[in-house]
Amino acid sequence: MRTQVGIVGAGPAGLMLGQLLHLRGIDSVIVEKRGRDYVIDRVRAGVLEPGTVDLLTASGVGDRLAVEGLRRGGVHFNFAGARHRIDLVALAGSPITIYGQNEVLKDLIDARIATDRPLVFEAEEVRIEDLESSTPKLRFQAQAGEPREIVCDFIAGCDGFHGVCRATIPPGAVTTHERVYPFSWLGILAEATPASEELIYAYHERGFALHNQRSPTLIRAHVQCPPDDDLSAWPDERVWSELRTRTATASGWRPNEGPILKKSLAAMRGFVTEPMRYRRLFLAGDSAHIFPPSGAKGLNMAIADAQVLADAIAEHYASASDGALDLYSDTCLRRVWNVQQFACWMTQMLHRFDPNDEFEHRTRLSELEHLMTCREASTSFARRYLGLSPISHDE
Fold first, then answer.
1. Domain definitions of the chain by residue range
2. Which of 113, 153, 233, 345 is 20 to 30 A (C-alpha) from 337?
């Protein structure tokens, strides 16, 4: 089989890239080792930047998002028993949109199926061959057990941190940078009426917590926990007890509680691959970078990579120019490192690294107070949280 672009991975980057290429008349095949239900059911990110919303809408996959997406004009920070709000609209001109990554994937999968272009789930033994040639090959076993070979002009590695694409690149051809944090996030999805429509970041002497509305009847919440914790150590009552303690305010606010539908543990790390390309293999999304989830950037950055790569591939076929392809990695990495710094700063400010370090605790409280009371600091935060360029000294 022959295609122009072989896409490995049916996550946000791979599916978005396939949709953007289709709209430009460029053929692609998407291969995913997991099943469709697994891909959709993973409870992941849910905060969309305005640029992500605009791209999904312009790409024809924004109809349900326009109806069900929850637009929120601010975010809250709870600390020292008080609630503080940063008004994103007033400071930076736009809201965020709450719409789960699983919902984005449903929309993209439906759009892909409507194109009749290939989307293969449960592919086994996926591997890339002939990367040194001008026609790299994508090989895998289809569901029926028959071997498949796809000859490609380009391959997009969108198969995540543990995928085969980055691992296929010869040793020494790329450099990886990583920061692993000494804590994890326990995440829950609970059936309860959210006590706050806007997202709440909470800093407490016991550690970080987050409360977010996923829908009018669902809460997505997280608490900081030790990196070696096990889900068995977190019965429902302990989860709610920690959320109550870490997010409660002196005014009496506390989260509403209900049945916990899902629990998960996520390690905290920052990770970047340089360059995001090897010959005709281009990395996008989690294959190339991981962000601490404190900044709510992973999904948005995967979508941004797909847009840059789709534009570059389209230029190649339209004008026989590889200028944009040659700049793909540099173009993406400029934003990647800027966003990585923001996510790392959020993580540093909101978490307890040493629960016995009172000096650390007091400096965190001081930094949060500065963020809430200094308009320039609040404005810079709002712009970066929305995926806009940082505020300049001339503004």
1. 2-46+100-174+275-346, 181-267+355-385
2. 153
Question: What pLDDT shows up at residue 395?
Answer: 40
Q: Name the packing angle between helices 12-23 and 298-319 (round to 10°).
A: 30
Burial class (CB in 10 A: 0-12, 13-18, 19+), 68: middle
pLDDT higher than threshold 70 for residue 33 = yes
Half-sphere exposure of 369 (CA within 13 A, CB side): 8
Copy the structure tokens of residue 230: 């096990």
List, edge to edge, every strand of the sheet that includes 82-87. Answer: 82-87, 74-79, 200-204, 207-215, 218-225, 175-191, 260-274, 289-290
Give the tokens for residue 149: 């070979």
Residue 10 token pair: 């049916």
> What six digits make up the tokens of 288?
């190339």
pLDDT per residue as tens digits for the range 231-247: 999 999 999 999 999 99
CB atoms within 10 A of CB 84: 18
CATH class assigned to 181-267+355-385: alpha beta
The CATH architecture one would assign to domain 2-46+100-174+275-346 is 3-Layer(bba) Sandwich (3.50)
